Amino acid sequence: MRGKLFSVLLAVVVIMGLSACGRSVSGENESEAKGEKEPTIEEQLQILCAKRETWIQSVQNEGYSGIYCMVSDLNQNGRLEVVAELTCGSGSFTRNASVYEVSGDGKSLVKYDISVESPMEIDAPGSVKTDAYYDKKTGITYYAAENYTNVDGTKNGYVPGRFYLKDNQYREDYMDVHKVESKENWKITYWRKNQKISQKEYMKEMNAFYQGMERKRASFCWYLADDMLQMNEKEVKLVLGKSWKGFSVQ
Question: 78: buried, middle or exposed (CB in 10 Å: 19+, 13-18, 0-12)?
Fold first, then answer.
């Protein structure tokens, strides 16, 4: 099931207190260290707009439904990221993620490395909501998502996972439990790898990873990026601004 297409969200997806290339792991803002003025949101949207060719063309297009993007602040460090992914199938499954963050001085973009087991279900395009879990010990926020797969034409499988930013990477990973829903009678069974377990055991393992973390709700807003190379900067900035306004963690 892990080799199947998986989309963000949800998981939507995506994740906090990390560092990108050129930043320290502690997330210290280099502009603050140098005594420079923090770039405003408008200035950050402008650089994302001006550099759109970089982050759009970095997504390897395999001829699927299209490239979608969202603007976010997944690690809550005050610097915006743009997450671009190639959708396929119904448009709910994403792959070939590309993540760029505005630099501390607001003059360039910093690219995140990608560590993904298999594509995650983030329900792009449109507005997406999911659970988010903030780990005070590490400063990371994890955004919940799940991997969906059609098992054999009669069942749907769901593998819970999460996406987040850590160190210099955008990561997506999964848990060792999953559930299977029968299309014939919509009965749900729960599994740990190949062993059948109870719903109680499933939920216990689901919650174990997030124990002690602060639970929140996150919102994302995805837009089609394919046409942005033909749009003028004013039009692109308007779309990216809408996406940013649609992002929240609370």
Answer: middle
Query: In one letter, which amino acid is 2?
Result: R
Could you give the CA distance from residue 144 to residue 166 in angstroms, rounded to a whole number? 15
**Count of residues in the chain:** 250
Total-model pTM: 0.80
List pLDDT tens digits, range 4-58.
333 333 333 333 333 333 333 334 454 544 567 889 999 999 999 999 999 998 8
Taking every pair of Cα atoms in the chain, the longest distance, rounded to a whole number of angstroms, is 63
CA distances to 148, 161, 184, 191 from 188, rounded to whole Å, are 14, 18, 11, 10
Q: Find where tokens 């988010």 sit.
A: 132
Q: What is the 3-state secondary structure (H, E, C) of 157-193?
A: EEEEEEEEEECCEEEEEECCEEEEEECCCCCEEEEEC
8 neighbors 67 (Cβ within 8 angstroms): no
Spell out the residues 6+ positions from residue 40 whose beta carbon is closer than 8 angstroms to its own: 106
Nearest-angstrom CA–CA distance, 68 and 56: 9
In whole angstroms, what is the distance from residue 175 CA to residue 169 CA? 19
Query: 49 CB contacts (<8 Å, ≥6 apart)?
Result: 233, 236, 237, 240
Whether 66 and 55 have beta carbons less than 8 Å apart is answered as: no
